[in-house]
């Protein structure tokens, strides 16, 4: 379970601070599939980064499985990222000089899994993603959809508790986007929590729950089918 | 962690996957060490060459010779032949000054030497018993000329290795009889000086024998005297005394540079020493700057490499890498790269010297050896600079939050 209480986060700006998250209270249960929506600058990516321990916060508390994340050292944060969290980025962030197989196997390197075992598991994960035939190709030799599948395989290789996806379909066409969402749904069906930052209504509609942010505050939180409908606040589902 | 096989596989993979970066770093370090090794080798070669050349003649000796006069003096015309004779040598070595070693040397060029069915043309050289010490000639077998051989004008000879090889092939020449200019001599010793075919083509016999058997006269050609333990200044004074005495005896004009010449090896040796100190200093300065340039190059490349890899560092941190593991990865990679390329540069330098040495062999250039300690120290400096120059930006990069690294452009 992820629990945020009064989370605040500001970025330094010339002559002051720019508040990005203003008192976020949020609980996400294990096994949920959640979309975080909002316009550009609403703080949705910052929220995801705080959840993923990629960024720190200024105030409030964040508990992951009842462990206070604000108390963690740099090394402990790395351990949590390695054991509990998986990341999928819009720009894939694959290491350019490593093959698909090596990219997928990399998180296991930091869990000190032996090389042979890493490669075996990475290949199995690529098979599950349907791109085992591209295992020895460099990222530059893969299509956008294939790259994202490699990125998802890399996120899943450690069997994390939570997948954090920042605009995972942002760089993909609609067909490939649907394929990626199919994979994330399937992942979620195994009990893994999936949190997706998106500004696409179609993507959010495929999640169980949607949280809408505006100016660093949650303005809506509920069933996706309800939230992504136009509301009295005047927000449109695909606002960006 | 540094000895982890996994780490080295990861480093090997990074190094091979980035050939341009690897090549540039390698070139920077390898070239630095290569230049240092080659320059050092050339410096040593030059030093060895001149020292070897001096090794032929003791550095504490005077070489005295005469020639035709170039200036008229006291009613005598120019172009008069001045010959050094036994009496001159006696005056110099017994009356004028004390000397621990002295020898005359007179050469008969193109002398036919026969041994059984073999013959060749070599130099027959008449010398005194001290000659081997004054010329530092290494004896290979048998014995050197004794005082008795000189006193009794014995028909004995000590022959160089070239004569041994040409006339005796594999046979031991000691005790054998050979004919020098149709006169039979017994071989009592052999000598060999490394790299000097000229010296090895000589048959050394007592000066007295040469004068009596071949010339019927008492010319000595040259006189070589040791200055013993004298200082450079005292040796110089000794040379002036010899010069003055010979000019007075043979009525040679004080300004006639050709008729009487006394070469002071002490002075020349001191001068060469000064030149070598200058050359060594020059090599060190150039080598130091080369090393410095190499270190700057490595630092520069490592700094760029870490900047280039900032996003990768962010990805690795997102995937669970600790700061320590990333710093180790970068620093060990820098150490591995600089070490391997430095060693390759060193090997290339040594091979170049090995290849060039036989072609560059000269009177003033020999055996361009490499000082391994200096080279390894230089390599250590470059490796250390590589490690430090990787460490600083790596520490900077891992200090930033993963999300900042991921967004780095």
Shape of chain B: elongated
Domains counted in the coordinates of chain B: how many? 2
Strand order of the largest sheet of chain B: 2-3-8-5-7-6
Overall morphology of chain A: globular
Largest interface (C-beta under 8 Å): A-B, 31 and 25 residues
Largest sheet of chain B: 6 strands, mixed, barrel
The major β-sheet of chain A equals: 6 strands, mixed
Count of alpha/pi helices of chain B: 14
H and E order of chain B: HHEHEEHEHEHEEHEHEHEHHHHH
* Unreliable parts of chain A: 234-240
Tally of individual helices of chain A: 8
Helix content of chain A: 25-40%
Strand order of the largest sheet of chain A: 6-7-8-3-9-10
Quick check: average pLDDT of chain B?
86
Query: What string gives the helices and strands of chain A in order?
Result: EEEHEEHEHHHEHEHEEH
The structure class of chain A reads alpha/beta
Question: How many β-strand runs of chain B?
Answer: 10
Structural class, from secondary structure content of chain B? alpha+beta
Average pLDDT confidence of chain A is: 88
Q: Strand share of the residues of chain A? A: 25-35%
C-alpha end-to-end distance of chain B:
30 Å
Q: What is shown here, in short?
A:
The complex is a heterodimer of chains A (240) and B (409). Chain A contains 8 helices and 10 strands.
List the helices and strands and how they pair.
The complex is a heterodimer of chains A (240) and B (409).
Chain A: E1 2-13, E2 16-28, E3 33-38, H1 44-51, E4 59-64, E5 67-68, H2 74-84, E6 85-88, H3 100-109, H4 115-128, H5 144-156, E7 162-166, H6 174-189, E8 193-197, H7 201-205, E9 209-214, E10 217-223, H8 224-227
Parallel strand pairs in A: 3-8, 3-9, 6-7, 7-8
Antiparallel strand pairs in A: 1-2, 1-4, 4-5, 9-10
Chain B: H1 5-17, H2 19-55, E1 61-66, H3 86-96, E2 102-115, E3 118-127, H4 131-135, E4 139-142, H5 147-151, E5 156-160, H6 161-168, E6 177-180, E7 183-191, H7 197-200, E8 202-206, H8 207-215, E9 222-226, H9 232-250, E10 260-264, H10 265-308, H11 310-318, H12 323-360, H13 372-399, H14 402-406
Parallel strand pairs in B: 3-8, 5-7
Antiparallel strand pairs in B: 1-9, 1-10, 2-3, 2-6, 2-9, 4-7, 5-8, 6-7
Helix pairs in contact in B: 1-12, 2-10, 2-12, 2-13, 10-13, 12-13
């Amino acid at each position: 379970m992820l629990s945020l209480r009064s989370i605040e986060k500001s970025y330094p700006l010339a002559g002051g601070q720019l508040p990005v998250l203003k008192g976020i209270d949020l609980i996400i249960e294990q096994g949920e599939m959640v979309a975080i929506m909002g316009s550009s600058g609403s703080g949705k990516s910052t929220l995801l980064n705080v959840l993923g321990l990629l960024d720190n916060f200024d105030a409030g508390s964040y508990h992951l499985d009842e462990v206070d994340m604000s108390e963690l050292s740099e090394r402990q944060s790395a351990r949590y990222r390695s054991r509990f969290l998986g990341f999928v980025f819009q720009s894939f962030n694959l290491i350019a000089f490593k093959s698909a197989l090596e990219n997928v196997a990399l998180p296991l390197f930091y869990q000190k899994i032996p090389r042979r075992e890493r490669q075996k598991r990475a290949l199995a994960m690529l098979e599950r993603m349907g791109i085992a035939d591209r295992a020895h190709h460099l990222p530059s030799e893969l299509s956008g959809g294939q790259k994202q599948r490699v990125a998802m395989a890399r996120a899943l290789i450690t069997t994390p508790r939570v997948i954090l996806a920042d605009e995972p379909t942002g760089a993909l066409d609609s067909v490939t986007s649907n394929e990626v969402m199919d994979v994330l749904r399937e992942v979620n069906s195994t009990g893994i929590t999936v949190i997706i930052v998106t500004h696409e209504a179609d993507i959010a509609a495929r999640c169980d729950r949607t949280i809408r942010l505006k100016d660093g505050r949650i303005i809506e939180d509920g069933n996706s089918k309800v939230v992504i409908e136009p509301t009295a606040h005047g927000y449109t589902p695909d606002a960006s | 962690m540094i000895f982890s096989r996994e780490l080295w596989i990861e480093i090997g993979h990074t190094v091979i996957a980035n050939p341009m970066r690897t090549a540039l770093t390698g070139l920077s370090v390898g070239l630095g060490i290569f230049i240092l090794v080659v320059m050092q080798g050339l410096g040593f070669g030059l030093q060895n060459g001149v020292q070897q050349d001096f090794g032929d003649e003791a550095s504490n000796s005077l070489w005295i010779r005469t020639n035709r006069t170039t200036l008229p003096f006291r009613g005598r015309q120019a172009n008069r032949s001045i010959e050094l004779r036994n009496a001159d040598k006696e005056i110099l070595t017994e009356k004028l000054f004390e000397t621990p070693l002295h020898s005359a040397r007179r050469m008969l060029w193109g002398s036919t030497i026969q041994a059984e069915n073999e013959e060749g043309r070599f130099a027959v050289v008449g010398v005194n018993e001290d000659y081997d010490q004054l010329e530092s000639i290494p004896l290979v077998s048998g014995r050197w000329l004794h005082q008795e051989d000189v006193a009794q004008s014995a028909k004995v000879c000590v022959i160089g290795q070239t004569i041994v090889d040409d006339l005796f092939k594999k046979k031991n020449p000691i005790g054998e009889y050979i004919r020098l200019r149709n006169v039979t001599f017994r071989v009592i010793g052999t000598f060999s000086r490394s790299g000097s075919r000229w010296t090895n083509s000589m048959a050394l016999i007592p000066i007295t024998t040469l004068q009596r058997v071949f010339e019927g006269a008492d010319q000595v050609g040259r006189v070589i005297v040791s200055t013993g333990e004298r200082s450079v200044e005292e040796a110089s004074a000794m040379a002036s005394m010899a010069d003055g005495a010979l000019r007075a005896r043979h009525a040679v004009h004080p300004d006639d540079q050709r008729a009487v010449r006394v070469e002071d090896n002490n002075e020349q040796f001191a001068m060469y020493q000064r030149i070598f100190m200058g050359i060594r200093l020059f090599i060190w300065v150039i080598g130091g700057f080369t090393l410095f340039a190499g270190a700057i190059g490595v630092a520069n490349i490592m700094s760029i490499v870490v900047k280039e890899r900032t996003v990768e560092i962010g990805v690795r941190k997102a995937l669970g890498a600790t700061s320590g593991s990333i710093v180790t990865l970068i620093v060990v990679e820098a150490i591995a790269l600089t070490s391997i390329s430095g060693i390759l540069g060193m090997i290339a330098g040594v091979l170049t010297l090995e290849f060039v040495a036989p072609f560059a062999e000269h009177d003033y250039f020999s055996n361009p050896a490499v000082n391994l300690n200096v080279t390894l120290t230089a390599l250590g400096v470059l490796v250390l600079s590589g490690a430090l120059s990787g460490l600083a930006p790596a520490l900077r990069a891992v200090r930033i939050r993963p999300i900042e690294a991921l967004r780095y452009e």
